[in-house]
Amino acid sequence: MGMKRTSIRKIGVIIAWGALCGACDTMISQKVAFKELEYEKKASLLPPRRKPNCKIDIELEYATVPKETARKINAEIIRHIFHYEGLPLRTVVDSFARHYIRNYREEVMPIYEADREHDPETADWYDYSYTLKGSEKGERRGFVCYELELERYEGSTQSLRNVYALTFDARTGDRVYLKDLFIPGSEAALNALLLEALMQEYGCNTKAELQEQGFLLLTDMYATENFRMGKREMKFIYQPSEIAPSEQEEIIVEVPYTLLTDLFKKEK
């Protein structure tokens, strides 16, 4: 049986009309408030057997007010992680869970049936789990910074983990991209700052030293759209295998705003 619980947890994100580096002349007395949706479901591959099974555990904060701002934020979160359009979060989660369990049974059943004839003790290998947590981070004034953590175990010896960061304009609910923040032509300078920050983090003086540790073997350093606006720095989040060896978890590269001042677009 599925179990859904909605608990209220308001998180204030002050909506400000402020420059990225701290200037803030006009304050709007509104807050973006969030509630939390919790969903748990467990289904056996061969009911009523206990194992193997598929477990889904979802905890997602979703915006509630202001209404239009919340609508845009929630729509982007749903689109990004579930790839659904135009449906409420509860409906999306229910539909996703049904499809995930159905696919689990259709894909795993024939393999498991064949395998257990030879080794009845292999049930654990066919357990699936899907754990998703999403929460608002509330770091930089004027922005809603939302982070999704997804961990999947799908019949392997190692779980798969990804972290996704979504940044929104707190006034409008529109998603914020790098092109909205940085002046045209700033890519090279931003990439250089990211490379320098990565070298400092891992005690390297050159890119070659980074490569000796397994970094940047297949790509040059680049600014990812997977970023968060921290209080004093921008945080660029790279998934496993993007810029580092696949056995690494996500890599977070932080660049202080003081180094980005000349690259930011100016407030009008």
Reading side by side through the largest sheet, how are the strands ordered? Answer: 1-4-5-6-7-8
Number of strands: 11
Q: Identify the overall geometry.
A: flat
Sheet-strand content, in percent, reads 25-35%
- Spell the H/E element sequence: EEEEEHHEEEHHHEEE
Report the radius of gyration as a whole number of Å: 22 Å
Please state the average pLDDT score: 87
> How much helix, percentage-wise, in residues?
25-40%
Structural class: alpha+beta
Number of helices: 5
Main pleated-sheet profile: 6 strands, mixed
List low-pLDDT spans: 1-29
Distance between the termini: 54 Å
TL;DR?
26% of the residues lie in helices and 34% in strands. The chain has 268 residues and is of the alpha+beta class. The chain has a 6-stranded mixed beta sheet, covered by helices on one side.
Please provide a written account of the structure.
With 268 residues, the protein is of the alpha+beta class. The chain is 26% helix and 34% strand. The protein contains 5 helices and 11 strands, in the order βββββααβββαααβββ. The chain has helices at residues 67-82, 89-116, 178-181, 187-201, 207-212; strands spanning 3-8, 14-18, 24-31, 33-44, 53-65, 128-136, 143-154, 160-169, 227-229, 233-238, 251-256. The strands form 3 sheets. Strands 1-4-5-6-7-8 form a 6-stranded mixed beta sheet, with helices on one face. Strands 9-10-11 form a 3-stranded antiparallel beta sheet. It has a two-stranded antiparallel sheet with strand order 2-3. β7 and β8 form a beta hairpin. It starts with a strand and ends in a 12-residue tail after the last strand. Mean pLDDT is 87; it is low at 1-29.
